[in-house]
Amino acid sequence: MDYNHYETNDFVADSYFNRWVKYPDKETNAFWQKWLEERPDKADILAEARSIVAFLNFSVEKASLEEQQEVKAKVMKQLRAGNPSGHQLNVTQRYLAMAATVSLLLIGAYLLWQFVLTQPYQTYTTGFGEWQSIRLPDSTVVKLNANSQLKYKKDWLAHQAREVWLEGEAFFEVVKKPHASDGRFIVHTQQLDVEVLGTTFNVQARHGETQVVLNTGKVKLHQTDPAYDQQDILLEPGEMATVRQHQLVKTQVNPQVYTSWKDNRLFFENESIRNVARRLEDLYGYEVKVAQPEWLDYTFTGSCPSDDISILLTAISESFHLKITLDDQQIRIEQHDNY
Known about the structure:
Layout lengths: L7 H6 L1 H8 L3 H13 L4 H14 L8 H17 L9 H28 L2 E6 L5 E4 L5 E4 L3 E6 L8 E12 L11 E4 L3 E5 L3 E7 L2 E8 L2 E5 L9 E3 L3 E6 L2 E6 L2 H5 L5 E8 H12 L2 E4 L8 E7 L4 H11 L1 E6 L2 E6 L4
Parallel strand pairs: 5-6, 15-18
Antiparallel strand pairs: 1-4, 2-3, 3-5, 4-5, 5-8, 6-7, 7-10, 8-9, 9-12, 10-11, 12-13, 14-16, 17-18
Helix pairs in contact: 5-6
């Protein structure tokens, strides 16, 4: 992505920039720090965009993705309308523009809150270590994984597509509606729209990345970022699609590895300790501390009941001769005293 000609509103609308502001990690920090070193003239614009994204994200955690995007679009439209010529503003004009921006953002946050309160949505939320089975109005069954949220409109009409919005992870067993005028079932995430007619599949949307694994049937994937111009992607059973940094990659996988959680088991196949640690952080809220960074690249295969991760920790400890201790919400991986 070429950010050299981006202005404030472009950065605010960019998903990778949003990922950096909301969920910074080593990768995004390194990218944007390097970009700023190459484009120091954009420092003020980048700082302003960060403030806007952070503000729009403040106190709206209960709002769904589509609600946030709708209000954000309205605010940005008003911001662009405030300077239609696109000319450089002098200091006084810029100050007034920034004051107007803050006012608009306050109004936007208020409108967003009011919007959420008045919408006829049904919302299900799980905490760390919690799972929930949900039956939707059409009898579709959704198994919601830990630390996740599912939202949908309460009134589903026969002539409209069935739509849900997901943050986190869920497994879907979609009921076919062959006689409906619009039988589609659509799962919306921040990066993808997953469209199905009747099938079973798993969707995970975390850390600025969306992953779809298909068990049975067919699904069509449409990337929501307007900067992505590739055609829709069709998935066959046993395929996984991953969207990361505007790139969609399709691979062959063993679906059991990605869906075993719905049967109360965690299954890992040649998975790095780094990804195992992230899984434990996502599902249980544990903070994983590793004494030696190179251990994160070790690969592990195994499984355990999802309600007893001590079995998993013991297996990893014995496989790599490491000392692993679980203390409250922290897991520490250290060199074993006997090695």
